[in-house]
Write a structure and sequence with these properties.
Elements (H helix, E strand, L loop, with lengths): L14 H12 L6 H5 L4 H6 L14 H16 L2 H27 L3 H9 L5 H9 L3 H12 L9 H27 L4 H24 L16 H8 L5 H11 L8 H21 L3 H24 L5 H5 L5
Helix pairs in contact: 1-14, 4-14, 5-6, 5-9, 9-10, 10-12, 10-13, 11-12, 12-13, 13-14
């Protein structure tokens, strides 16, 4: 069958070896964000760390390139049992690569398209499709053929594109992938992670729905820890309140002021705390997942700093996730 991710034949290493290597690599995580944000030249300061050998068309792409390489490294180190457990995580992460590649395809940005596929874990056939076919309408049926192996609900991407553009396609693929994943056999730690991702997505759409006071009810994904009746009830409450209550319920704290950024940050930081807690309970799977998540957080922070290096740095510091 056609696969979204690269097939790895190599046996990999024992789990405890990988955990030890990851622990060593964790020491390189950036701790002092302010030093970087307020440095005269954040890009030059960054080059002094482990990011020096990455060249990208745009500075803000460098952290994502580095993340792709790190994920590739971890995936290649894994033994087949670990790879099976983490396949849903990498599949979910590679959707981002897929979406960026489609956007660059639409914008004829050949350079960034090549870059984003470089260290990606997408299968060779998928990369070739994204590189060689002339435009998005030509690429989508091929993408669909790969995804439909997972679930028949992935069909109709081309129609969706014509009706709602790439945004609609991205949302449909992400939602379908999350619901499909959470219904599949998963390691308990992975199941917890994906259920939380669904909660985050549901709270985000609840908040947007209330903020823009849309008439029709938001469509909630199934499979999260917060049940649909609770979400529906919150959707009927006053703007911001519903989302705030659910964030508190999910993460233990709610943001003081409700804005799109504060909602998203509260949800992401809640996930970070949960994964750190799980990693401390001495589960090797939990430790690897927490490392992969922390790598993602670092890439996101760095990308925001590099994208904002000509902006008011105080504003940039508000983008930083702890």
């Amino acid at each position: 069958t056609m696969e979204l991710l690269r097939k790895i034949e190599d046996g990999g290493y024992p789990t405890e070896y990988l955990v030890a290597r990851i622990q060593g690599r964790s020491a390189a995580f950036l701790r002092d964000w302010d030093a970087l944000i307020f440095s005269p030249d954040p890009l030059a300061s960054l080059a002094a760390t482990g990011y020096r050998n990455i060249i990208a068309a745009r500075a803000e792409d460098i952290p994502w390139q580095r993340l792709a390489r790190e994920y590739e490294w971890v995936y290649l180190q894994m033994n087949s049992a670990l790879r099976r457990i983490f396949k849903p995580f990498f599949t979910h992460q590679e959707l981002r690569t897929l979406f960026l590649a489609l956007r660059y395809k639409r914008g004829n940005d050949e350079k960034r398209l090549q870059e984003v596929l470089l260290a990606s874990l997408l299968a060779k056939t998928v990369k070739t499709t994204l590189r060689d076919l002339p435009d998005v309408p030509a690429v989508l049926p091929e993408v669909e053929r790969v995804l439909i192996v997972m679930s028949p609900r992935f069909s109709g991407l081309e129609d969706l594109f014509l009706r709602g553009g790439l945004g609609a396609v991205e949302q449909h693929i992400t939602d379908t992938c999350l619901e499909h994943t959470v219904r599949s056999p998963l390691h308990p730690i992975m199941r917890g992670f994906f259920r939380r991702l669904i909660d985050m997505r549901n709270i985000m759409s609840l908040y947007k729905h209330q903020r823009w006071t849309m008439k029709d009810r938001p469509l909630f994904l199934r499979g999260g820890t917060i049940e649909e009746p609770v979400l529906t009830q919150a959707a009927g409450s006053r703007t911001g309140e519903g989302a705030s209550d659910l964030i508190a319920r999910l993460t233990g704290t709610a943001p003081e002021i409700i804005t799109p950024t504060s909602v998203e940050h509260a949800l992401i930081e809640g996930m970070t705390r949960l994964l750190k807690k799980e990693a401390r309970t001495a589960s090797e799977i939990g430790r690897i997942l927490q490392y992969l998540w922390q790598c993602f957080i670092e890439a996101r922070n760095l990308s925001a700093i590099l994208a904002g290096r000509d902006m008011d740095r105080e504003l940039v510091s508000q983008e930083i996730l702890s």
